[in-house]
Amino acid sequence: MTEKIFKNIPFNIRFEELYQRLHVKDNTxxxxxxxxxxxxxxxxxxLKGMYKSCYIDEKGKDFIIVEGVKLTSRILRKNVDKINKxxxxxxxxxxxxxxxxxxxxxxxxxxxxxxxxxHACRIAADTVIREIDExxxxxxxxxxxxxxxxxxxxxxxxxxxxxxxxxxxAISVSINENYLMQPTKSLSGIRFSSEVTFCNCRMCPxxxxxxxxxxxxxxxxx
Length: 222
Hints:
Layout: E1 3-9, H1 15-22, H2 29-44, E2 47-59, E3 63-66, E4 69-72, H3 74-79, E5 85-92, H4 95-102, H5 107-135, E6 142-144, H6 157-164, H7 166-170, E7 174-175, E8 181-182, E9 186-192
Antiparallel strand pairs: 1-2, 2-3, 2-5, 3-4, 5-9, 6-9, 7-8
């Protein structure tokens, strides 16, 4: 088993991506406001993350067992059919940035600060995932996230945190009674090698999703 904790992940803001998320063009009054708030947020931020390599103990019809914990998902089970090792990960914008955002009482500033938090979470997740992919040389690397698909509901989040153990506590991420992570701009999931790259988005019909990575496909093999 390999486990790694990331703290103070560099918050290298990708302004073009942030502008696109907020539907703003560069060199405008709003882009200047975003830059000012982003710089302010970056000074407060402490992006964090963790990952843990885990062996699959058992595979059933629609579940797998990892470190004694049963993860129930037909799609997850199919995705890991030919592998015996997965990587659990959690990434977060951090409480520091979350608290900074909560103090923004102006509606527009709060909206932008919320997007900055989300952007920070994505950068933290990208950092953790990139190391997993490169260090362990994953082929066709793919991810699944509890709550992203009906087949793997949000209450399975509790099981991921059980497997993560002290790793989640080390980066100050917890889940509440509704299985939502705190800070809210956090991301958890399982990374794995697959025969064909899998993406949750292709199976999710939600329209106008700001984090969509691929088009929804009604016809699929699951």
